[in-house]
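Usage

Read records sequentially. Each one opens with the input sequence:
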Amino acid sequence: MQEKNLINKYDEKLYASKRIKIEKDLNKILLNISKTIEPQVEYVGDLGEKGKLYCRTNLMIQNGTFIDSSFTPVKKVTKNPQKHVAAKLELISKHLYSNSLFEKITELKFLEGSDTINNLSDLLLFNRHFTINDNFYTPSSGESSMVLLHNELLEDKEIYIIDEPEKSLGNDYISDVIVPMLKERAQSGRKIIIATHDANIAVRTLPYNSIYREHDINGYYTYIGNPFTNNLVCINGSKSDLDWKEISMKTLEGGKEAFGERGKIYGNT
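and closes with the structure output:
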């Protein structure tokens, strides 16, 4: 009889220790699920008068009740298993010392997709958007181009290859921000290759070398030159030199007529 009592007490102790361990582990998980994660805020660029543009990433751990279609799982898991697993963990906590505890744990194991949730990071959801002055903001295509080009030129590189940077950018921004940055980079010895139709960029940056392509019935011809010599020389050797100024006025922003009109309005200098 005494031996039987000892066995019963051992079983009861083992039973209690297992429940206590499950409770501790579960409480630790539920505590982490309920934590608030500070958003990650990254500086994107300056939009001038509108203010500084930031990218804000909001993070949330699925707790079984969170519903927001703008949030997406961080890992490659679907939303339903995230929600169902988190909800089931909460339910298990309410049956820790009942006879149905292991039944509830079994139900968790057999939830559809539960095998994709192996740790807390599998329950992470995120939402990312832009802000100005902490307010939600959607930059226009032009503003996106401004920021991308500006940040690209801020990076210290040996060579910059830029294709039509004037697209979607205002003349003031090109003149006041982009042209000075291009000139500064060139003066510091960096190589900058630009394809452009914008006179501000093509002329005011004072290119060391301009490349002009011409086409006729016999094919394509490539000329090189610069504004200092005012010549464009055909590298194929079969064409006469061209006038850099004339070709620039013919090719850039509306042609020679546009340059002439601007000269009448603003005055030739």
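Summary fields computed downstream for this record:
- The chain has two domains: 2-137, 141-266.
- The longest strand covers residues 52-61.
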